[in-house]
Here is the input.
Amino acid sequence: MFRVDPQQAVLDHVAKQTATGAEEHALSPEAEAIIAAPVESTLSGAVVVGVAQAVEAALLAALGYGIYKYYVSLGAPEFYLPVILSASLLANVLFNAARTHRIAAYRTVFVQLGRVLGAWTIVMALLAVGIFFFKAADLFSRLWLASWFVGGAVLLVAYRLALRALVQRWTAQGRLRRRTAIVGGGKDAEALIEQIRASASNDIAMLGLFDDRFDDRSPEQVSGLPKLGKVADLTEFARRTPVDLVIVSMPLSAEKRVLDMLTQLWVLPVDIRLSAHMSKLKFTHRAYSYVGDLAVFDMADRPISDWNLVFKWLFDKVVALTALILLSPIMIVTAIAITLESRGPVFFMQNRHGFNNELIKIYKFRSMRTDSADAGAAKLVTKGDPRVTRVGRFIRKTSIDELPQLFNVLKGELSIVGPRPHALQAKAANQLYYDAVEGYFARHRVKPGMTGWAQINGWRGETDTIDKIMQRVNHDLYYIDHWSILFDLYIVAMTPVSLVAKNENAY
Here is the structure.
């Protein structure tokens, strides 16, 4: 049974006051009202589009094979199957070329259906011409071809209308809208807001404005959108309620203001875009990205999103389940050894910062004597620390004490690979980590992990100097900027090696 340390109640209270390492300050009443309001879970447009494509291609292929299997006697499967799969793939390519696999396209009726049916007709025409030129008419049934063409057209119309209804429903619920904060105010922000309402209202849910100016250039409301606070308030706001996108309404010439804003916001796991509507300079089309029809410059991206988030989630769950099965004997033996050596619970729970500074409780095997437990890690463990038991020294050296965190991974609080979550009161050279390292909380733009790039490079264990914690943070930021599934696999594979070769700092 998991046990909360006696100090935990106090630490929980302190932790709830903590958003960025400093005491939480009150936001404006408008901002607090938005935070208090319930939020629907959002869907990734890229994932919706990808799933829609796969389902559509599978339905077309299944229809083509079903017609052959149950209504046609001419020809053999080895001829039909490659043709069916190739035609379904070509149809998907043409649907994409016709720009029908877009969230905006799914919301239309006649434009979408016209392009889809046109592309399907081209596929069937190419298939008929191919059968004719390759003199394969005796291998394929004309009834099958005609039936697949007509049946496929009916299927596509029905599927696209159902997809449209689903997308419209999700849009009305706000699940396909990106929760967006605007940085800036005055006439410039007013023009931006009107452009968003005209071209991207289905894709963006504007929450409010954040601006450091408090004069006539920055009124309390702009086009009906409330001013929620300063730019510094946006950091705390985004940690207390989901924010997907920040659009900055500043001219490119305001270099210092833009830089100051980025310095404050880059620690957040959000996309940051600079609106191009104020720029007098005209760039090539490829220089911009678009939010609806609004041209923007990409200033920062959410580190892991869309399909990458799906792949990361699958990786975590598969590896965690596999590790639990393979390592369960070690975990059972460890639990028995802890029980035999000293009185107290087998497990230890501790508050730490998770994704976007969210508080999580991580599970560990207890490695200290119960009367010496330090739930806040106000004093880091050092070499020969008398608080650590004999079993504790071994499991800390080998990181066996971290294995219960596999349950945190299955709960979705941790990843297998990521920046290690630090205790809230951990210090280096008598300074709290977030005071010692500028931009420390940027490592929380992704979920923390059981192992990471810093750990396999020897930056684990004691952090008695500022240089050590800076090295750890720098490695964490490198990992975030260069993440890939292959990178995760490499780190997992190298973790056992590093435990043997680079464990001199682990006590």
